[in-house]
């Protein structure tokens, strides 16, 4: 049975869109990719899929689909001119190559097909590498004029009206790739979708390909990585419905049940060979010089997706979690969640809770305020020792705790934690106003989720310095300074 022409055309379109969707997944994973476009006017004869990159060469693909296995890319197909004023595919390819060369572009050109290439042809067969689809131009150049390879080379040069060297240059920039059938392209996309935190079920692949098809129908041009992030979120393709997953590998790299949407890895910056020993960076200046800029960059990636619900995961100490919460603040509409002992704590529904002022003591005449969060233990004594060893800058110590005694069961739920964190911010604000403090030194003994929530609500505050407790030294070291 022979398919009707329209059916064959639709299959060809579907194949192109499947490959386009695979490049979308690649773009979400590769920061070097600037944009993906389909039917790009600037692509010449390689306009089907165009991928523009920051540092690597741009990619221009011409995609050809066949319906049956007996159809191949042959010399006849490449050099056939179908109309009196037209050009053959090979001539179109060469003209595009010349245009890009004159523009001094860095580019990769590929003819991509689900059909085979004529294995019996001297150029399309023996001279084509199955490793990367490139042609062995040295062999083509040195082939004798009476050999099959030399005769094919000279026919192509004559067809293009170029000399041998120009032909070899052109062929050296051309890849001939077999991408397999649409189903195999879809399976490759599914693997990549998992890697970038998207759903990877068959329906999700269909949605992804329809997204690419919509670009063509609407005549849309380049789609940047931010455009792609918004579109996959709008189409419900996030692995966790409507929620972005932000994985932070700080003191350890832990596996996630669901692939993260965005990741931040700073394990290599820490001192120590094990998670329990990683409390300070090798270079303390990296907290503000490297970690905070990296965090802001990842937040920008999250913002590009559109949804404002973020589930935070990872092995993270309290100061870093506070910084994450502050980088994704309540005032910008973010809703955060965190798995605390197999319970999801979220900032979506803060309960009515208020901190108890455990202590509010005078330390000296300094103008700065120290704040201790004492939910799981009371760090007041060690903070006072710290304050005495760091000069007279801190004048007051405010210790905030739960209704009862601090301890590991003092925080009953995520909603209570969110409400307590928000109320604690107001208590600290009042202390800042009363002391006219221009700097707050923050120490935390709290559940991880509470530290994140406190940062989430920490707005309209003076410069805040975060500290990490070092058990072996029975004291604190400074980490980040948040202006």
Summarize the structure.
The chain has 483 residues and is of the alpha/beta class. It has helices spanning 5-29, 75-79, 89-102, 122-126, 137-142, 148-160, 164-172, 182-195, 202-218, 225-234, 286-305, 318-327, 380-389, 414-435, 448-457, and strands at residues 33-38, 49-53, 58-64, 72-73, 107-113, 116-117, 174-178, 223-224, 244-249, 262-265, 309-313, 335-340, 343-346, 356-362, 368-374, 394-401, 439-445, 463-470, 475-482. Residues 301-482 form the SMODS-associated and fused to various effectors domain.
Give keywords.
2 domains; 6-stranded mixed beta sheet; 19 strands; alpha/beta; 15 helices; about 20% strand; SAVED domain-containing protein; about 475 residues; elongated
Written overview of the protein:
By secondary structure, the protein is an alpha/beta fold. It folds into 2 domains: 5-178, no CATH class; 244-482, no CATH class. 39% of the residues lie in helices and 22% in strands. It contains 15 helices and 19 strands. The chain has helices at residues 5-29, 75-79, 89-102, 122-126, 137-142, 148-160, 164-172, 182-195, 202-218, 225-234, 286-305, 318-327, 380-389, 414-435, 448-457; strands spanning 33-38, 49-53, 58-64, 72-73, 107-113, 116-117, 174-178, 223-224, 244-249, 262-265, 309-313, 335-340, 343-346, 356-362, 368-374, 394-401, 439-445, 463-470, 475-482. A hairpin with a 4-residue loop joins strand 18 (463-470) and strand 19 (475-482).
Terminal residue distance: 71 Å
Number of helices: 15
Total tally of structural domains: 2
In the sheet with the most strands, the strands line up as: 7-5-3-2-1-8
DSSP, total strands: 19
The helix content is: 25-40%
Shape: elongated
Rg over CA atoms, rounded to whole Å, is 31 Å
Q: Main beta sheet: strand number and arrangement?
A: 6 strands, mixed
Question: In percent terms, what proportion of residues is strand?
Answer: 15-25%
Mean pLDDT: 93
Low-confidence stretches: none
Structural class: alpha/beta
